[in-house]
Write a structure and sequence with these properties.
binds adenosine monophosphate, globular, alpha/beta, 8 strands, 216 residues
């Protein structure tokens, strides 16, 4: 399946994409994870991306599109993929259209995780990410020691761009630049809206049922 997962920051895209990728046997391609990896390794792209990430701004379309084009050309993407966090602008939709046309591929569906803004703000405030494996955890309750990552035992940290002032900018960018994509995909009859409020397992169940309907 050739899938895109959309939703505001903090909607649970990364967590659900990891599970869906395992369940459906397609690689999880998170442009945010790719940029964070470049920053961590201090590659030339990472040095360029750092300032954008720190401010919660989008990296220029051509840079992101080239990175995704290269990733989708890899062997493991030939039978399908799950894109998480791309496309994020109308220009990126056009870039992806061109990549798909080159490969002779069609989108299977675009999944939208819907979570009200007040809830994503609260979720991001308590979100912690494992420094070792990237799994998502929660901040410790006041006065308690932080728990290690349940997946690998690594240290849970707050993402630099999960600080409140950066989150406000990321939400504004989502509203202004990414939300208009929903109309484009709705018009193409690709958009599948999923209620993203509930436990991780509940939301995962909804995504799986939606994908079963797409595949049927
Ligand atoms: P994410 O982990 O998806 O929230 O992405 C974290 C940050 O990476 C974003 O705030 C952007 O600075 C950058 N980024 C990730 N994906 C994209 C994209 N498709 N276009 C532009 N910037 C992106």
């Amino acid at each position: 399946m050739r899938l895109e997962l959309m939703g505001p920051p903090g909607a649970g895209k990364g967590t659900q994409a990891r599970r869906l990728s395992g369940a459906r046997g397609v690689p999880h391609i998170s442009t945010g994870d790719m940029f964070r990896e470049h920053v961590r390794k201090a590659t030339p792209l990472g040095r360029k991306a750092q300032a954008y990430l720190d401010r919660g701004e989008l990296i220029p379309d051509s840079v992101v599109a080239d990175m995704v084009a290269q990733r989708l050309a890899a062997e493991d993407c030939q039978a399908g993929y799950l894109l998480d966090g791309f496309p994020r602008t109308p220009e990126q939709v056009r870039a992806l259209d061109a990549i798909l046309a080159r490969h002779g591929w069609q989108r299977s569906a675009v999944l939208l995780l819907e979570v009200p803004e007040a809830e994503v703000v609260a979720r991001i405030a308590s979100r912690r990410v494992c420094a070792g494996c990237g799994a998502v955890g929660r901040a410790p309750r006041a006065g308690t020691a932080p728990d290690p990552c349940t997946a690998c035992g690594g240290r849970l940290e707050q993402r630099a761009d999960d600080r409140e002032e950066v989150v406000r900018e990321r939400l504004k960018v989502y509203r202004e630049e990414t939300a208009p994509l929903l109309a484009i995909y709705r018009q193409r009859q690709l958009l599948v809206e999923i209620d993203g409020v509930g436990t991780e397992a509940e939301v995962f169940g909804r995504l799986q049922s939606a994908l079963d309907r797409v595949a049927a």
